[in-house]
Specification:
The chain is mainly alpha-helical and 154 residues long. It contains 6 helices and 2 strands.
Length: 154
């Protein structure tokens, strides 16, 4: 979130996102006025950036557990693949079940908040987990497809 372009997050809020103790204060603040107090802004007439910060905090709280579950499911799939090199992904029942669970968890994470109904959500996810390089090779069921960035686009 911190590096997503165009958000123009206030430096005070960014500082709270980077500091675990301050972030916990914001999460545990409860009522919105307590949230504003934790930020150190006027509780009756907070600046616009504080209102936006509260909305972002709510998105994060809703989305984080679902995304954590998706990450755990992905980790399980990746460990299984590492332990079983050369498996047949179309006929390995354990792999297929793990893949199904991962897909379900990822779908739940994406559906968890309306943030991902627009391009900003996609940009945020991309910046949070950038690809390892500019070329991606997908192999599945004896097919291989290579996707690479060309002409500055994707």
């Amino acid at each position: 979130m911190i590096i997503t372009p165009g958000l123009d997050l206030n430096d005070i809020f960014v500082g709270c996102l980077k500091d675990d103790a301050k972030w916990q204060q914001l999460i545990n603040a409860g009522a919105i006025t307590n949230f504003y107090a934790a930020l150190g802004v006027d509780q009756v007439s907070p600046p616009q950036w504080a209102t936006v910060a509260y909305a972002w905090k709510q998105h994060i709280i809703l989305w984080a557990p679902a995304m954590h579950s998706a990450a755990q499911a992905l980790e399980t799939v990746l460990k299984y693949l590492a332990q079983h090199p050369g498996l047949d992904p179309l006929h390995d029942g354990t792999f297929l079940e793990m893949r199904k669970i991962f897909a379900s968890q990822l779908k739940a994470a994406v559906e968890k908040t309306h943030l991902f109904d627009d391009a900003l959500g996609v940009i945020t996810i991309h910046l949070a987990a950038p690809p390892a390089n500019e070329t991606v090779v997908l192999r599945y069921a004896d097919e291989t497809k290579t996707y690479s960035r060309t002409n500055g686009g994707s």
